[in-house]
Amino acid sequence: MKLLIIEDNEDLLQNIRTYLKREGYICEYARDYKQAFDKVMSYTYDVVLIDIMIPGGSGLQVLRELKSVNPQTGTIIISAKNALDEKVKGLELGADDYITKPFQLPELHARIKAVNRRNQRDGREIINVNEIAINTDTMEVTVNDTPVDLTPKEYDLILYFASNKNHVLSKQTIAEHLWGDYVDHLTNLDFVYQHIKNLRKKLEQAGARNYIESVYGIGYKFKVTNHA
User: Fold this and answer.
1) CATH superfamily membership of 2-120
2) If DSSP codes are grouped into helix, strand and coil, which group holds residue 222?
3) N or C: which end of the chain has fewer CB within 10 A?
4) For the whole model, what pTM was predicted?
């Protein structure tokens, strides 16, 4: 899962990043309005954490801009104890949840998982693609009830494919989902092919059909038809 953390308090930002990266998330960050605006207009995220008070502008304006281009993105407002009006405005603008400072990181993590399930998975913890089952809470994948041992990147990839089944995804889009804006520093996207090759092999060895199709010159499609 790819997150964007918009927070100007350096200690809090680093604490959140360290904790969530340890939980297996890709964590990008922005410390002010301009950085945040550039990020949400250039990249897509599963969940964005937005501090209301940021240098150079308002987190609420970032939220407004984000929802105008990617309304499906999960959003959580980070607010001070006395910021009731801002919380209400944020929820009216489409924020999915809010958390008040100070907070415990496990609580923030739980809220992130809940928002992601609710917004992008229709509230489901289990995503079924015929014989494949993806548990978005435990991050486990099974084929006909047989566990499949995937790396974190392979799990992110199968979840991304399952959430965008029958859509053509470019190599660039897949790379950005797996690595965030770090992909801008890469000289090529060969690693995308390698991750897909490994994922396809593991799924087929567990008894799954080959759903991942190459689309020449563009990328890949997770082609799914229902089977009785």
Assistant:
1) Response regulator (3.40.50.2300)
2) strand
3) C
4) 0.66
